[in-house]
From TrEMBL:
Protein name per its UniProtKB record: ABC transporter permease subunit
UniProt keyword list: Membrane, Transmembrane, Transmembrane helix
Region described as Disordered: spans on this chain: 243-273
Chain segments annotated as transmembrane: 21-41, 309-329, 350-376, 396-420, 427-449, 491-511
Composition bias type Gly residues, residue spans: 253-273
A Pfam family assignment: ABC2_membrane_2
Taxonomic lineage of the native organism: Bacteria, Bacillati, Actinomycetota, Actinomycetes, Micromonosporales
Amino acid sequence: MSAYARLVHAEWTKFRTVRGWVIGMLVAAAVIVGFGLFPGMEGTCGKRGDCSLPVGPEGQEVTDVFTFVHRPLTGDGTITARVASMTGSRPNLTDGGTGDIDGVVPWAKAGLIVKDGTRPGSAYAAVMLTGAHGVRLQHNYVHDLAGSATSAATPRWLRLTRAGDRVTALESADGVSWTGIGTVRLTGLPATAEVGLFVTSPQFTEAINASSASGGPSQATAGFDQITTTGGWPAGAWTYDTTGDPGAVAGPGAPGGPDAGAGNRGPAGGGRLNGAVETDGGFAVTGSGDIAPAVAGAAGLGTSISQTLIGTFAGLVLVVVIGAMTMTGEYRRGLIRTSLTAAPHRLTALAAKATVLGGVAFGIGLAAAAVVVTFGPDILRGNGIYVHPVSFATELRVVAGTGALLAVAAVLALAFGVLLRRGTVAVTVAIVATVLPYLLSMTVLPIAAGEWLLRVTPAAAFAIQQSTPRYAQVDGLYTPANGFFPLTPSAGFAVLLAWAVAGLAVAAYRFRRRDV
């Protein structure tokens, strides 16, 4: 057995014989499990029944709610229309959201769409004028391509051309000179697709602070005129539908029927009916909802598996306390001289201590996270809370990442113990560096300040627990309290790792040069 292996065995023996350290690590695991399996939250899925969302062509959960004025197109063809006007309304947050004010929300959409039927989650390609993001070409919910940065107040001609399973989008300022936006492929698009005009307007939400927000459904109305079609269009009238489940997004009311003007009501159950009205040479179409990937917290529906790991911060407190005390305890009791007599190579002794501490912390974090991620979502669902499903690879990354978070934080706390030597001081510094930024970001700090802390402090590593992606084309509540962090999982963990490597390097330098 090598000298290093003997030191690791000696440090492990020392660790497991200190009852307080063993109990502390077990309590840390129990706290993580306790918060995850007994969250004390209730939702409405138990009352509403099935809260599941449609799944798009590429496997993601999606929102697919909009007002659709359409006709079947068999084979190839083109539709052209001018979005002559676009107005909207959204909740008035200054009066608690009880009334509405005029204003198109940034991701309100009005334009042309080719869709594989009206089933929620079916494949589509759409060219649209948005509230504040100009003209866009979007398809299959997760893909977004920018066109011109025109204002929603400016009329815009739009055109979609289908050729087999390829759809090409163009735009024009005058209906004469056209600019291509892009061409997308809709694999498996049937010979007959539903093509026409659409309008939708997503949930409007503003964050008040890190842990609370206010908002409600919004509504948009677009005037379409100069509508022309070429290709395999049958004779007959346009059909009007409000697709999806508008009651879930746009307030109470029944889905729209085939008659002009039918639909559910808009924000706060008031305003115009969602639907379509024929005008002189066109349509006035009103809609609420969205055609986009479903994001936890974006429309107030559901949470992610990250919510089950909310107890990690409490377990981390205990882990960093033990991490600091594994070294400060030896200084306090005068055992450091005995340890160094048995291991004259100080850096090897420090490495062995870090190995044992990190290994124990990783093991308890891995076990606790595995239990929580396995059983926690089912408990949340039993409480009526919808939990967005994730892949096994994501679950594995979250579970292993939680163990790694605790392990590296424990080693960082050990470095503080070496440098500061006094238990109270080292423990305080370790908690302030690793846990306090997370708590402040989740509770009292403004969102911008909290996100800054979660970029530069060791608490950035909590990003390893983010389980759902954010999308630029969805205005979600991308806050830490909703499971979204300013850094990617790997980048956030790298920040903690950099702190630990730097701290351990300085600690090793001081440990080797100074007297005990």
